[in-house]
Specification:
The complex is a heterodimer. By secondary structure, chain A is an all-alpha fold. Among the domains of chain A are: 80 residues, Up-down Bundle (Four Helix Bundle (Hemerythrin (Met), subunit A)), CATH 1.20.120.1200; 36 residues. Chain A is built from 7 helices and no strands. By secondary structure, chain B is mostly helical. Chain B is 62% helix and 2% strand. In chain B, the strands form 2 sheets. In chain B, strands 1-2 form a two-stranded antiparallel ribbon. Chain B is globular. Classes of the chains: A mainly alpha, B mainly alpha. Chains A and B meet through helix 2, helix 3 and helix 7 of A and helix 8, helix 9, helix 10 and helix 17 of B.
């Protein structure tokens, strides 16, 4: 059962990743990208990490994919992209991809992943939270400051007085 | 005399009905019954309780309440019942349909109009059915230059996403479709899908007004998601759980709105914006951009989007009830199930019906919880509908200003209130709850 789900998710993820790269229509490409990100969320579900999976869905599919879609929709494709396509480039790209994949796979198989046992219970997200506030607290505070900075920046941008438009509401 | 169908005669209508009945009986007797008998001849019937199951016996059992009640009970315990009927789609669609009618009628009363009146004898109560039939029978027109796959898929996806949202809402103790540990996070993830579907639908119509409406919807939903999520963090901090059933159960003595009124207000306002209700109905502004992102949708596609919108409204109201108003908690007002029905049955003069041993299909707690949940949800839906009769639409810049500066600030204040309550020992371990 888990194997079938894993295979289906793998096909969805890789297939839509290829589609995201190859499709001529930018909108369909970004929809395919959403499929890839959703497939990765599915992998997290399979790994008993629903917390990460749901954040993957909420942040990547729900926000980042929306931003990409939005940007793509406001773009006139013909103005940016010139179609450069010839056989040599294509084969060079495929060859490069194969080399990268084979070397990554070799590293991966060499890393001792085969000897890992998977019987250990899934980590509770509360344990991750406890780790964050004890062992990793500097990183947490750094992240908090970063996020607070970005939220403050967004607030400042929203509050900015636009000189050209004096009809804005206070 | 109806103007729409001038040649309508009741006698002919009844005659056509009788005609249909005659032909159905005719075909069933001549073709249906022999076919069933032939099939039964081939199939080996099972032996139950030492008796061979014949069609006659099966019909007897169906008519016998003591035989059929366990089957009904077993069916009600299945996932299909939960998804399709009670806490899931059917229940939500019923409330959504009621909401549409109440909205039209209440809005009319607020504005000193009559509202739906002619369809159905009593106050136009059949108007909704008429509208539904009209939407189903209308032609679906697809714009010539639309992107057809996305255009077709968007309404269906919208309803599906709204139904997924409904699945997370617990109605009574144990009565929820998806009782997941991360219920609230699941809700956030599902809410994140609505802007995608909206903007895709708007873009695929390849028309001006839908696109403007879709861009507005995207702005509005994405920017109001942030205060929405932040305003709920206070409840999560006080409860220490993301499971919606546990959050509802934790409010047995006080609803969280008592301690976190700021969060409740922020959540309510963001809810209005996410639902595109007046005063935040910029994506569908009728007076500016025809019908916003719904302009090119016609027939049942529009009907599906409307159904999804009202399912979403129910789900948001239910979420508000679960998070802030105590969910199903309330004093027990449902009377206990009469015990003599189980032992003696109903005696009406010479006739005795029953007894019905397996009868209480729902427990008293479940009925009481559902009653309180529905009462509170209807109240919240009323307050969601109310601004439509009162407020004008606000401008885009005012909307974004409100979302990005005021609501986010208030949501942070709410988080600090929750933290203060927790650290002061008012709530949490050793506190009130």
């Amino acid at each position: 059962m888990a194997d079938a789900a894993f295979l289906a998710l793998a096909v969805i993820t890789i297939g839509s990743a290829i589609a995201a790269l190859e499709l001529r229509s930018l909108i369909y490409g970004s929809i395919a990208l959403m499929g890839t990100l959703g497939g990765i969320a599915g992998f997290f579900f399979l790994l008993d990490a629903p917390f990460v999976a749901l954040f993957q869905l909420a942040v990547y599919v729900g926000s980042i994919a929306v931003l990409i879609l939005f940007t793509v929709m406001l773009v006139k494709r013909e103005l940016i992209f010139k179609k450069i396509e010839d056989k040599r480039r294509k084969f060079a790209g495929i060859g490069l991809m194969l080399v990268v994949m084979v070397s990554l796979g070799a590293v991966f198989l060499d890393s001792g992943i085969k000897t890992i046992t998977t019987d250990e219970p899934a980590t509770d997200f509360r344990d991750i939270g406890t780790d964050f506030v004890t062992y990793y607290w500097p990183a947490l505070i750094l992240m908090g400051l970063l996020l607070a900075g970005s939220v403050t920046g967004a607030l400042v941008l929203a509050k900015r007085e636009d000189v050209e438009n004096d009809q804005r509401a206070s | 005399m109806s103007v729409i169908a001038p040649n309508f005669k009741l006698s002919e209508f009844i005659k056509s009905l009788l005609d249909n009945v005659f032909w159905i009986i005719f075909i069933v007797v001549l073709i249906g019954l022999p076919a069933i008998m032939m099939v039964l001849f081939v199939i080996e019937m099972p032996v139950i309780d030492g008796e061979l199951l014949t069609p006659f016996l099966a019909l007897t059992w169906i008519a016998d309440p003591s035989r059929i009640l366990p089957i009904v009970k077993a069916f009600m315990a299945t996932d299909i019942f939960r998804v399709m009927a009670f806490p899931g789609f059917g229940f939500a669609a019923l409330i959504a349909a009621g909401t549409i009618f109440i909205e039209r009628k209440m809005l009319a009363k607020l504005q000193l109009r009559v509202g739906p009146f002619y369809c159905g004898k009593l106050e136009g109560i059949l108007q909704l059915m008429g509208d539904g039939l009209k939407l189903i029978s209308k032609e679906i027109i697809i714009p010539a230059k639309a992107d057809k796959p996305i255009f077709w898929a968007a309404p269906v996806l919208f309803v599906a996403t709204a139904a997924a949202f409904v699945a997370f809402i617990p109605v009574a103790p144990g009565w929820v479709v998806a009782d997941v540990e991360m219920g609230l996070l699941g809700v956030f993830a599902v809410i994140g899908f609505f802007p995608i579907i909206t903007i895709l639908s708007a873009w695929s119509a390849n028309s001006k007004f839908p696109f403007i409406g879709g861009i507005r919807a995207l702005f509005q939903m994405v920017s109001f998601e942030i205060p929405l999520i932040l305003s709920l963090l206070g409840v999560v901090m006080l409860t220490g759980s993301l499971n919606l059933s546990e959050i509802a159960a934790s409010q047995s003595s006080f609803p969280w709105i008592v301690f976190l009124p700021v969060g409740a207000i922020v959540f309510f306002i963001t809810m209005l914006a996410e639902l595109e209700r007046i005063p935040f109905d910029l994506p569908e502004a009728e007076s500016e951009i025809v019908a916003g992102w719904l302009t090119e949708l016609s027939g049942m596609m529009y009907g599906l989007v409307q159904l999804g919108t009202y399912l979403k409204l129910y789900a948001f109201a239910g979420l508000f009830v679960v998070l802030f108003l105590g969910g199903w908690n309330g004093p027990m007002i449902v009377p206990p199930f009469p015990a003599e029905l189980l032992e003696k049955g109903i005696e009406m003069g010479p006739i005795v019906a029953g007894p019905f041993p397996g009868l209480p299909l729902f427990t008293q707690e479940m009925l009481n919880g559902t009653l309180w949940f529905v009462l509170k949800t209807v109240g919240v839906i009323f307050f969601i509908l109310l601004p439509r009769g009162v407020f004008p639409r606000i401008r885009v810049d005012m909307l974004l200003n409100l979302g990005w500066t005021k609501l986010i600030g208030l949501a942070f204040i709410n988080i600090f209130i929750a933290l203060g309550l927790l650290y002061a020992g008012v709530l949490g371990p050793g506190g009130l709850q």
